[in-house]
């Protein structure tokens, strides 16, 4: 899934590749850069499109015919200081399927201070944004009801795969292992010797694989919400979301206003899941823009998705008790609205084809009977696994290499950020990575959900880490001071 939108700041910058504090390693780009703009940024950037081979695996190359090239789109926000550092920050977006240029305006405030003496590089990963996007748009016919129907989505994806293949795309060549080779080509063509990596959610998996293949080219790495290879996302979707939901229920019980207003929160959630286990609920939503009624069928799949999405941010999760109480009475408007508030904008930025290439080739390949037994113990059950099982059946891909799942060992300084309320990449997902890094530290923000970098003191910690390249010097205790947003009932009590 994508990141929460934040207000973007704007700074006037200019491009100057000729100056450096280290005259021994001056950036010497071998590509032509052109002026460009990105949504959410008033500042002019410099862009280029770099050709790379679509097939990165020699064993998959055809026996005849020239290799096909695709173009990787790159946008550079140059350091504002004339004499600047030569190690830029590469922004690795999440999803999988999100384009780095699409989140530039959102994440720029995080890098505003670092941008004084470092270039910020937004590179659209292959299959996303303007880098040969594998975009699959669900059919407009049927509106929201059709969009929520899995059979309709599977049919649409099947047609999209056929269309993309007819256009010459090899859909099996969009794994993370392929993408990091593009990153290193871009690094080299732009003239950088070493780079700093910042990755969020799925972007951390890209950063980790780049660390595996090209550790000599990494100065520091920041992993916000680690999603390492082997996480098997459709499995962790259920397990981690169920854990976050249990935490929400517990926090509500400890809050006097929430506990008084929603004494049966857990029972209401479980009753809705039970009711939808073998059936559905026909109801009517109110269109948020037009106010018109919209007939809808709420299935177990729909309810699971609507319940999980608000857990991604601590703000929307604080409104869940009210939404669940209304849903228990048959009114799903609030729950649907929370879901759309979190996921609608993000889904527009996701390349569904690239998303499936990664999920089907990397996460669905190693799911074991033991994994399924674990998800069977959660409220969500096999909902997400079964959805991807059907989608992956119609999407061509190839299995990731065995080396992709091996532990990563590196001496590069690494800073791991994790949110205690995260429903997809909680702190325990990052902790095992520490054993492989000679210089690493995990910082936990206990009251933050998915995405820590933009919260509270986190931007200052990131700046200090990049400047020092020493995780031992970073004190993350300030993250514990970031409060969980009050439940809706507490806000109403304060205003009475």
Catalogue the unreliable spans. Answer: 1-24
| CATH homolog superfamily of the domain at 34-154 and 173-231 and 402-481 | Alpha/Beta hydrolase fold, catalytic domain
How would you sum up the global shape? globular
Averaging pLDDT over every residue, what do you get? 88
Question: What CATH architecture label of the domain at 34-154 and 173-231 and 402-481 applies?
Answer: 3-Layer(aba) Sandwich
> Got a strand count?
11
Strand order within the widest beta sheet? 1-2-3-5-4-6-7-10-11
Q: For the report, how would you describe the main beta sheet?
A: 9 strands, mixed
Instruction: Specify the structural class.
Output: alpha/beta
| Rg measurement, Å | 23 Å
Strand content: 5-15%
Proportion of helical residues: 25-40%
CATH hierarchy, class of the domain at 34-154 and 173-231 and 402-481? Alpha Beta
Number of helices: 18
Instruction: Give the SSE string.
Output: EEEEHEHHHEHEHHHEEHHHHHHHEHEHH
Question: Would you give an account of this structure?
Answer:
The chain is of the alpha/beta class and 496 residues long. It has a domain at 34-154 and 173-231 and 402-481: Rossmann fold. It contains 18 helices and 11 strands. The strands form 2 sheets. Strands 1-2-3-5-4-6-7-10-11 form a 9-stranded mixed β-sheet, sandwiched between helices. The protein has a two-stranded antiparallel sheet with strand order 8-9. Helix 9 (300-308) packs across helix 12 (333-348). The longest helix has 22 residues, at 233-254. Residues 1-24 have low confidence and may be disordered.
Features:
496 residues; alpha/beta; Rossmann fold; nine-stranded mixed beta sheet; two-stranded antiparallel sheet; 18 helices; 11 strands; 38% helix; globular; disordered N terminus
